[in-house]
Design brief:
The protein is an alpha+beta fold. The chain has helices spanning about 1-40, 45-50, 200-225, 235-255; strands at about 95, 100-105, 110, 120-125, 130, 135, 140-150, 160-170, 170-185, 185, 190-195, 265, 270-275, 280.
Length: about 280
């Protein structure tokens, strides 16, 4: 019973110390932040450095690459009409072998804002010779977005799945079955054009927060060590900072699940590679 009372007294003392030092700790952190701001900026000049706001919002237009986060705020609408195609039998047509690849450029922007069923088109920029078939540059290919979604939680980026369904040849249009294997020189796997995944970036960001808190706690401990009254309590901020850093590191895989992946926006004129999934026939 006596040992229990002694333990109880020790706990009461520790709680009194912790609650007594927390206000000092937070005050020291605030003062350190103020000092950092004063070192980098002249507070008297800040009000003069801010330019006046424009009376009207300027119109801006920008384009971005695969995985970049800049996309239009409204769903783009393109009027691409798929032409009627002419089917050719394998006996009476010229064969383009399965696996044949075409180097093309997009005729308009492609992004994860576009819905499934949106028609798109490409134009080849390099000629292709396959046996008796000569496909010149400038040949048009037509396709459709089979699936798309906006960036998601857990760090997943936007997604666009394109299926190429037709091509022009000698003034006529023929059906093909093809997929995208490259977009802006980047390999595309399983025909999924994806925005940048941000999960690992979310983990690193959370760890950085813990590290910044730990550095502030070290500075607070150093200031308390210079005070003859607070010197005994000076290790507490460092211990608390290390605990905070450890918690941020341990929980970072879970907190990163809340992060959103990158948007997918590919500007018009971007290079793509189209690969035939099965043989096509033209005449």
């Amino acid at each position: 019973m006596k040992n229990f009372l002694n333990i109880k007294k020790v706990l009461v003392f520790l709680m009194a110390v912790i609650f007594g030092i927390l206000p000092v700790f937070s005050y020291e952190l605030d003062m350190s932040v103020d000092e950092e701001i004063k070192k980098k900026y002249d507070a008297d000049k800040l009000k003069y450095d801010v330019p006046p706001l424009p009376k009207t919002a300027p119109s801006t237009s920008s384009s971005s690459n695969v995985g970049q986060s800049s996309v239009p705020k409204t769903t783009p609408v393109y009027s691409v009409n798929l032409p009627n195609v002419t089917k050719v039998s394998s006996k009476g047509g010229l064969k383009i072998s399965s696996g044949t690849k075409f180097q093309v450029r997009s005729n308009h922007a492609i992004s994860d804002w576009q819905r499934s069923g949106t028609n798109i088109s490409f134009t080849s920029y390099a000629p292709l010779y396959k046996g008796a078939v000569s496909i010149p540059s400038g040949t048009k290919f037509y396709g459709v977005i089979e699936e798309s979604h906006r960036p998601q939680k857990t760090g997943n980026g936007g997604l666009v799945v394109i299926r190429v369904t037709g091509m022009s040849y000698n003034g006529r249009n023929f059906p093909v079955n093809a997929k995208i294997t490259k977009a802006n020189s980047k390999k595309i796997f399983f025909n999924n054009i994806k925005g940048k995944r941000q999960y690992w970036k979310g983990i690193a960001k959370q760890i950085d927060k813990g590290e910044a808190f730990y550095r502030k706690s070290r500075r607070t401990s150093a200031k308390m060590a210079d005070n003859p009254i607070l010197v005994i309590l000076s290790p507490i901020p460092t211990i608390a900072g290390f605990a905070g850093y450890s918690v941020c590191t341990l929980l970072s895989p879970l907190t990163a699940l809340k992060s959103t992946g990158g948007n997918l926006s590919i500007p018009s004129g971007s290079s793509f590679e189209i690969k035939l999934l099965e043989a096509a026939y033209v005449n």
